[in-house]
Design goal:
Blueprint lengths: L9 H10 L3 H23 L16 H23 L4 E9 L5 E11 L2 E11 L5 H14 L7 E5 L4 H4 L5 H8 L4 E3 L2 H12 L3 H18 L2 H14 L18 H11 L6 H13 L5 H14 L2 H24 L6 H16 L3 H21 L36 H24 L4 H8 L6 H5 L9 H7 L3 H18 L3 H25 L3 H17 L10 H9 L1
Parallel strand pairs: 1-4, 4-5
Antiparallel strand pairs: 1-2, 2-3
Helix pairs in contact: 1-2, 4-6, 7-13, 7-16, 8-13, 9-11, 10-13, 11-12, 13-14, 13-15, 14-16
Pfam families: DUF4371 (PF14291)
Protein name: Zinc finger MYM-type protein 1-like
Amino acid sequence: MNDVNINRGNFLELLKFTAERDAILRQYLDNAILSSKKRKLNMDQRQKNSKGRGSLVTLVSKTTVNKVIEGILETMRKHIREEMGDQHFSIQFDSTQDIGATDQATICFRYLNNTDIKERLFAVIKVEDSAGKSLYELLKTCFDKHNINFKNVIGESFDGASNMRGEFNGLQSFIKQQNENSIYVWCYAHILNLCICDTCDNLAAKNLFGFLNRLSTFFSDSYKRMDIWKKNQENLGVGVKKLRKLQKIGETRWWSREKALKWVFDGEDCLYTTIVSALDFICSSKKFDQKSIYEATSLKNKLCEFQVILTAHLFIKVFDSAGPTSSYLQSSNLDLLAGWLMVENTIDEIGKINFDTIVVEAEKFSQNMNDKFTNFELNDSIVVEDKLPLIRSRHKKRNYDEMCSDEHIINPIDKFRVEVFQCTIDQLRSSFIQRFSSNREIIADIQYLLPKNFQYAKDNSLPESALKILSKLSSINHQKLVSELNHFSKIYDNIAKPLNSNTSKMYNDDDDDMFQDNEEFFLDWDKNDEMNLEVKGCEKSKTSNNNHNTKSCLICLQKLITN
């Protein structure tokens, strides 16, 4: 282990690193290394070979460490199993490739333990077949091995891939066969961003975001081009703007589209002028090869097209409507009803997006950029379009006996309105309505179980359909569930009071009762009891010590109070 040129593996290398700061561990490792060297020397002298370590036990071999890890794993699983008991629970399931290109699936349990909600990672399993049936068998094998009842699964949460959410062959369909009342929950933040991805399948949207991604990679792929970018940032940027770089667009990083778009086209401090200036410098510089110059010219001309600017401002409006909802759905303290209402509000806002307003804002943006280019003294050939160009429409050949002819939209603004704007808005609204249609009723039912909404149960003002889904899923009579909620909501305020408030009242009540009992006791005291007490007291005093303690004498105490 002293040879620094040999990689001993993660565990041993970390052990050596820790030993540099721990004297006891350092001494233990030194003794183990010394004993190993002595044993090897003895074996060489005897001219014997041995694959084992004989009586040398160091407890740092990979076999021992793996056994320790497996023991810890089994202990943790046993503890989780004991906490779960035989109660209902939900599962979270997902898979991904590790660095060794092996598909690994994680199984997490969510359950209730002593009024606390627990989320525990239970297993990481190798996936050999990603079909819904195979994943179900994988889960079932794991459950059977650890004696977990599959029928106790009341909820499952995983992504929206077809092998997961398929109605007939998806994993959730096989789980429903075991428990038909189990609920499949698809992450709402994931759903919303998939709606945005559906909208970006439009041809104009693909061109826009593909263009933005190429802009980013054009500068980042070459250090020489990146130096030009940094110099233009220093000359034209102010404050934090000097540190900005173009955002690459990732398939799974949904926010990257919004960030890439707004950094280039949104606001007075956008990077539009910086990009055009850097591209223009590359086009006119002799330091770059012809390929770079050609691509820079193409990107610069594309950036100045009004079609790109108009499409960008359309999606800025879309992101402004859906962005707050997306952020809220990813927050930790999410209120389900509030999230659902925000989704409904987003659908309404998207329907209210005005095309004429977008056109006006795009034209104003183009004019502002032209004014800035004039102030920066850039090349006079750089002109940002503020109108859509007229496109010649081709007419199909018409046969002799045909009476009708094809109708073409000649006005480019009207053409953009029909082919891009309306398609984008309609696709987005339909995706929202389709993807967010599940689990509406149960979300509404859950709201009445929150303490802040108990007033509706107190006043008997619950809708007739309220709690019906919950009663069905829990196999509880609907009327009984409503009645119990009504009763619990009335006593909840007293139960939820602080401990000091409740115990103080109990102490005060006990003091009042004690005083009342003492008063009744002395009022009911008759002479016979008094005489008997005196006689007994006198007899006792004769046999006791001559030093009579009046403070502890019950007779003296009674006389002091009654006289």
